[in-house]
Amino acid sequence: MPRSFWKSCTAGCFLLACLLLAGLAFAGSPAAKPVARTIVLPQGAHPRLRYGAERLAVALRQSGAPTTITEQAQLSGKKDLIVVGRAADGLLQQAATAFHAQADKMPGKEGFAITSGDNNTIVISGTDNSGALYGCLELAERVQEAKEGYVRNLRLTDQPEMVMRGACIGVQKPTYLPGRQVYEYPYTPESFPWFYDKQLWVKYLDMLVDNRMNSLYLWNGHPFASLVRLKDYPYAVEVDDATFKKNEEMFRFLTEEADKRGIWVIQMFYNIIVSQPFAEHHGIKTQDRNRPITPLLADYTRKSIAAFVEKYPNVGLMLALGEAMEGVGQDDVDWMTKTIIPGVLDGLKALKQTELPPIVLRAHDTDAPRVINAALPLYKNLYTEAKFNGEALTTYTPRGSWAELHRKLSSMNSVHIQNVHILANLEPFRYASADFIQKSVLAMHNIYGSNGLHLYPQASYWDWPYTADKVEPRQLQIDRDWLWYKQWARYAWKADRPRPEEIEYWGRQIGRQFGTAETGRHILDAYEAAGEIEPKLLRRYGITDGNRQTLTLGMLMTQLINPRRYGLFTLLYESEAPEGEMIIDYAEKEAKGQPHIGETPPRVADEVVAHGRAAVAAIERAAPGVTQNQAEFQRIKNDMYCQDALANFYADKVRAALLTLRYKYSHNVADLEAAVPLLARSVQHWERMVALTKDTYLYANSMQTAQRKIPMRGVDGTYKTWAEMLPVYQRELTNLRHNLDSLKQVRPLPASQKTARLTSAPVTLLNKAQTYTVGAGQPVFTDTTAQLTALAPELLGLKGIRLSQAQMRSQRTELRFTTKQPVKLLVGYFNQKNPRYLPVPTLEIDATANDYGQADIKISNAATVAGLPPLNVHTFSFRPGTHTLNLGKGAALLLGFVPADEPIRTYNAGLGVTNKDGELDWLFE
Questions:
Q1: Is 54 buried (19+), middle (13-18) or exposed (0-12) by CB count in 10 A?
Q2: DSSP states along 105-169
Q3: CA 154/CA 24 separation, integer angstroms
Q4: Which residues, 6+ apart, have CB-to-CB distance to 403 below 8 Å?
Q5: Contact at 8 Å (CB) between 11 and 17?
């Protein structure tokens, strides 16, 4: 434009010229009347196009532009149109040509192009119906952000990087239902009133599509008996007729509403679980991890799946072969290829449908690569899913065997999905570290080759849809944790975004809720500082990555100084943490003068304290700028102070633990004396935690069952608050002071307590099995000469059960017996991971691993057998009656029954180990 043109312009001419030059798609100025718009869809448009058009129309109307929606077979109208459809639709091709609005390029699956054309037209061209829908949402957001209704000349294309982007809801509860086991929750209004709330579902589904998520996972142990009725097994339905009809209506409503938003509903289920009425009818258990596959179980499951697929065609399936079924073996392959896939194909055949719904294989407690290799020739639309950080968030760069599993699954001919699971170390506090989340998704792509995201709620998974906040009415998770969903979804769509721009973006997003963008950036700073605390604490001090540990309830001193006593899950340190050292390893290296490696316990103690201080400072900087939503801001602020207190509690307690372990090697009482003020200070930090949470939170953890064991066993909803833990931590301090005084007055180290022999309980065995008197020199198997060489004194004289070692290794061990009194069975597990030995009960992979109270070691290194590893003793508890105990495959010793009320001291007998640990647990107990 020549300079003379600008000189000759009046102010009004100058403004008009600027508008023309900018190529605004919407004519006029803020003061001008908005232009009426017509959104044009192809005749007989897909529900996704209609949904997207309506969302766009709402945004336009709110901006002041009158908007109508029409469907046309041939394009009519010459200006002010927004034409929406698939790129292959004739209407779209006609519009692109007529208005010179051809896209520069067409993206891939679920992608879209938005192109401005002549006569104030816009063409939204999707690669598919979902892409066109996302294009409508993109334009709607731009209209809303512009406020006055102006949108600049548009020539853009976009598409998601991840193929599957989804969130999950647990149709489960914090506690077991009466008479039920884990995961057994029929769909009923009494248990899940929210499931029947259509308005809530619409709100949730809108949240998913706003975040461009395309999948919703419903987790339940055995949903089929609530949703389908089988001709061959009519008695299997476990809800009444009225509820069954409600379930049918709701599931159809949900799937139809999800489908028009481009969302696959994927129903998850565990294997092998059957309905309670089915189990009672056939005299079997609803679930038993160690039972074999039978024709009855296979037929019932196959027909349940077939009926489900036929009845709900827009639903995929996700299966967990582990936990309720013995994992990692041919049974898994057979169940997938001979039961699950045939059931899906049967349903499709009855439906006369050729489109294969997605089947997602959960790589949990199963050999997923082996299963997928066997399944791919039978079914092509397969996905795999594996936990990113176990049941927690600990690191954005998993390594070791966990990382190798991700890489292997990503390299197969199926899409691999990363599962951000449970988040047991984060709850109940808010988490929104965009930096940590972005780095996690980048690693999913760049390091592990994954192409899908399966996102759990940020907290209170078992208490959906509510948060743990003590607020009336109860807060909804999707309201409180909107940032959690938005951050993961943004990076699942596109992960590689410049960090400075992301800080500005999230500052604006948060600022809209509370005040200015500057205020939002301060709150983001607080979230990102606090967002390092729980991941670092768990990965360097924790017992497990599973939800049997509630990190935010703290840890006992014995758990810090003797973690193996509590079933240490070493994968947490080997794969889900940067290279570094556990507390016990660090202490040993210090004592031996050896160099340290990587992330160390003292370093993390210093770092989390600094993170807590930074989070508090940032949230205080934000406070003056908060002009709206003050109540929620105060809750965020309180969370920052809670996490600061938590960081200081752990830091001081870990320093006390390291001094305690130094005493183990130095035998210098001064080391223990130095630990006392640190432990006392940690208790003071916990008192602050109690004060900060007593009026703000209902609980720390949403799993409130006996599966939760660390720091304390959660039975009947106990030990779920910080106040309940305070006396425990105070008692530890009192015991240390008392025992320290005893040490100084009596002797350097007390001898092991003398323990009386355990008493055999009378039990009638219903199996054919030999019995023997437990003692040194006794053969322990019927088919070998292997003998007991040493054992803890408590075990002498018990009535052991002698079985065939070869048989125990080749098939599951079944023990049937009758007892007239409550008893405990002592089982000796060989202390070595090997297919030849019975696997120890592990809650991380088997949700029923503590159904008999068997998860914890009672006496470690309790006995030795010639030529075999040392044994750890666990106990199984039984009520009076007749029982069938199914153990898995592998050799173990059944050392006999004792009365249930007979105490068994927990300690390390030290047999069969070259260097018995100098146990210090007694200092705190």
A1: middle
A2: ---STT-EEEEEEGGGEEEEEESSHHHHHHHHHHHHHHHHHHSSS-----EEEE--S-SEEEEEE
A3: 9
A4: 447, 448, 575
A5: no
Average pLDDT, the chain: 92
Amino acid identity for residue 17 in this structure:
A
Determine the length of the chain.
925
| Mean pLDDT, residues 373-386 | 96
Lowest-pLDDT choice from 438-442, 593-597, 765-769, 825-829: 765-769
pLDDT by residue (tens digit) across 318-332? 999 987 787 667 899
Cβ–Cβ < 8 Å for 357, 344: yes
Convert the pLDDT of each residue in 165-193 to its tens digit: 999 999 999 999 999 989 999 999 999 99
pLDDT of residue 915: 53
In the predicted structure, residue 24 carries a pLDDT above the cut 80: no
Higher pLDDT, 833 or 817: 817
Cβ 840 vs Cβ 860: under 8 Å: no
pLDDT of 796 above 60: yes
CB under 8 Å to 204, separation ≥6 — which residues? 169, 465, 478
Q: What stretches of 694-792 show up as alpha helix (H) in DSSP?
A: 722-745
Nearest to 251 by CA among 193, 305, 317, 198: 198
Question: SS3 string of 170-233?
Answer: ECCCCCCCCCCCCCCCCCCCCCCHHHHCHHHHHHHHHHHHHCCCCEEEEECCCCHHHHCCCCCC
Helix (H/G/I), strand (E/B), else coil: 320: strand
- Answer for the pair 261, 205: CB distance below 8 angstroms, yes or no: yes
Torsion of CA 848, 851, 855, 858, to 10 degrees: -160
Mean pLDDT of 872-881: 95
37-158, what's its fold? Answer: Chitobiase; domain 2 (3.30.379)
- Mean pLDDT of the region 459-481: 97
Tell the burial category of 534 from Cβ atoms under 10 Å away from its Cβ (0-12, 13-18, 19+): buried
Q: Is the pLDDT of residue 16 over 60?
A: no
Partners of residue 316 on adjacent β-strands: 266
The burial of 603, by beta-carbon neighbours within 10 Å (0-12 exposed, 13-18 middle, 19 or more buried), is given as middle
Distance CA 797, CA 782 (A): 19
Q: What is the DSSP string of 404-468?
A: HHHHHHHTSSSEEEEEE---TTTTTS----HHHHHHHHHHHHHTT---EEEE--SS-GGGTTB-S
Q: What does the alpha-carbon distance between residue 744 and residue 736 come to, in Å, rounded to a whole number?
A: 12
Where do the structural domains in the chain lie, given as residue ranges?
37-158, 167-206+215-385, 531-744, 763-923
| Euclidean distance between CA atoms 681 and 651, whole angstroms | 10
Q: Is the pLDDT of residue 77 over 90?
A: no
**891 backbone dihedrals φ, ψ, rounded to 5°:** -75, 140
Cα 749 to Cα 79, 208, 732, 907: the distances in Å are 91, 60, 18, 16
374 residue type, one letter:
A
- Percentage with pLDDT > 70 across the chain: 94
* Residue 13, pLDDT score: 39
- Rounded to whole angstroms, how far apart are CA atoms 786 and 866? 6
CA distance 313 to 299: 21
For residue 499, what is the DSSP state? H
Q: Which amino acid is at 469?
A: D
- Pairing between strand 415-420 and 382-387? parallel
CB within 8 Å of 181: residues ≥ 6 apart: 286, 287, 848, 851
For residue 493, which of 164, 264, 262 has the smallest C-alpha distance? 164
660 close to 551: Cβ distance less than 8 angstroms: no
Phi first, then psi: give them for residue 412, nearest 5 degrees.
-85, 175
pLDDT for residue 21 is more than 70: no
| Rg of the chain over all Cα atoms, to the nearest angstrom | 31
